[in-house]
Amino acid sequence: MKLTKDQVKHVAKLANLPLTTEEEERYSEQLSKVLDYIDQLNQVDTSNVEPTFNVSGQSNVMREDETAPSLSQDEALQNAPKKENGFFVTKGVFEEVEGSA
Amino acid sequence: MTNNITKLTLTETIEALKRKEFSEEELNQAYLSKIDTLNPKLNIFLEIQKKSRGIPAAIKDCILTKGTKTTAGSKILSNFIPPYNATVIDKLSEQGVSVIGKANCDEFTMGSSGENSAFGPTKNPWDLNKVPGGSSSGSAAAVLADLCTFALGTDTGGSIRQPASLCGIVGLKPSYGRVSRYGTIAMASSFDQIGPMTKSVEDAGLVLDWISGEDNYDSNCRKEKFTLQPGRLKAEIKGLKVGVPKEYFGKGLDAGVEKVVKEAIKKLEELGAEVVEVNLPHTEYGIAAYYVLITSEISSNYARYDGIRYGGTRDLFGPEVKRRIMLGTFALSSGYYDDYYAKAAKVRTLIKQDFERVFEKCDVVVGPVSPTVAWNLGEKVTDPLTMYLADVYTVPASIAGIPGISIPCGFSDNLPVGLQILGKYMDEETILNVGEVYEQATNWRKEKPKL
Description:
Chain A is mostly helical. Chain A is built from 3 helices and 2 strands, in the order H-H-H-E-E. In chain A, strands 1-2 form a two-stranded antiparallel sheet.
């Protein structure tokens, strides 16, 4: 399957990956080649096959709801590029729009 | 003296320490001075810790070590100092093991040659122009060059077994769920396993004993701990059924590698094993299914790198990481999920069933680890698909979650070849026994490069 440059742009947006024009072209070519290879999966008859998502055989692993020691606030923040008053600093999610209440 | 200390296996080192043949300080000094000489040539360690206590181990840099920089070979984590230890590090520490260095690897463990590290490739100690394999490139090279008593690597689709094969050391990928993944930087969560990379088969059993077992921080980690019996490994394979899959000896397998692996299988037969031909018919779809499944898990896992809580911004990802995030995001995107992710998950079932059927007829499956010996640095970097195909014999076991080991079984073109032994789910004991018998009957593990 061919992945066009427009599709690459769309996927990069979904993945929040900033790509250069040159990268978009390269990935369009390389990923198309990989997808062509992956297309051979269509030769396999899977009509009566259940999917496998986990191979550990574990499910619904429960524990008592008890508190336990965890990272201190300082430790949790120690690698943050920007912090303020014990908080992570991030870009605003809801931009203030002119005219809104 | 120095040279002799670093030649010892982990088991021999522990015995020698007990007999007080040398002190822990002398042990550490011996390894550190060897690292001083060889690390600049081989680019194995990203961080070196000068300590005088403990049994020195090399730890792949995707495994968190509290207070010691852990980058996973990525620029995005170039300043990351973990605030906690991976479970395996705590478990090793209880056994008196110390971290002598953080070993280079392909960025976020994505690669088969070590060349995807943001901090330059590790060189293969057998030939500095060759790749050591990957992604546990530094761990394999460190064990081979005697820069540690043993190393930890991680294996998602072959990242322990393949560099072990290309360097000529022992590398064990445990069953999925045998070892806690807590504190290893995830690539694909339903595949990743931490495992030992060692100088002998017995060492691999010992390290697995140390690191396996239940952990409340990894719900996929099972209760069953692997215990190396006090009588050690059973050096006996008479009557054991060894399955040889014909799909592992087809097109693409280098003739030199094939010859060496077939001789090793003949040796197992001489040692009393019964060789039976088996079929793993879905092997050819392994790589295709694997690259859909793992990239899907990657696209989800790597959303966490937002540059807010830790790490840099997403433009700092290297090309292979971006490629995999893109592929996985596409495979999961609206309109394509059923064609790619769901389809690959069904093929995963078929590959798992292949092994289940085969293990009704035999106790272990043997074959090559890698279709070729170590290749030239730079040879495959521009063609991702060719690089992916290097994992054709290691990926199926990862898809099925079963354990596999690579043990040195000879040379082709003066470069090492590994024999892969695969076992039933949670039956590391049998593959270690087979490895031990083979190792005892041969001298391959004693071959070392001149450095």
